[in-house]
Amino acid sequence: MPVLKKSPLWHIYILLCADGTLYTGITTDCERRLKEHNNSPSLGAKYTRTRRPVSMVWCEDVASRSLAGRRECAIKQLSRAKKLALVGGL
């Protein structure tokens, strides 16, 4: 019987940047991705490189990469006030 590869769980996350702005992204590993945003000169998003340190203020599990991408897009469309309401205020 063939071995089925389990697809990884995806996460949508929101970061609070040092300048007070919010950044939304997706990943399979929240802890690793936060370290990349804060420490890596090439792996962190260009947006967050000049706004360090960043802290993860919200993370949501999603079953697939496709759903994560769609949810990320929907969150990026929200106003700042609605994003803050989503994360429970700051």
UniProtKB/TrEMBL annotation:
The keyword Transcription regulation is assigned to this record: no
Keyword Ion transport attached: no
Protein name: Putative endonuclease
InterPro entries found in the cross-reference section: GIY-YIG_endonuc, GIY-YIG_endonuc_sf, UPF0213_domain
PANTHER family: UPF0213 PROTEIN YHBQ
SUPFAM superfamilies: GIY-YIG endonuclease
GIY-YIG domain mapped to chain residues: 8-85
Keyword terms of this UniProt record: Endonuclease, Hydrolase, Nuclease
Family classification: Belongs to the UPF0213 family.
A Pfam family reported for this protein in Swiss-Prot or TrEMBL: GIY-YIG
GO terms for MF: endonuclease activity
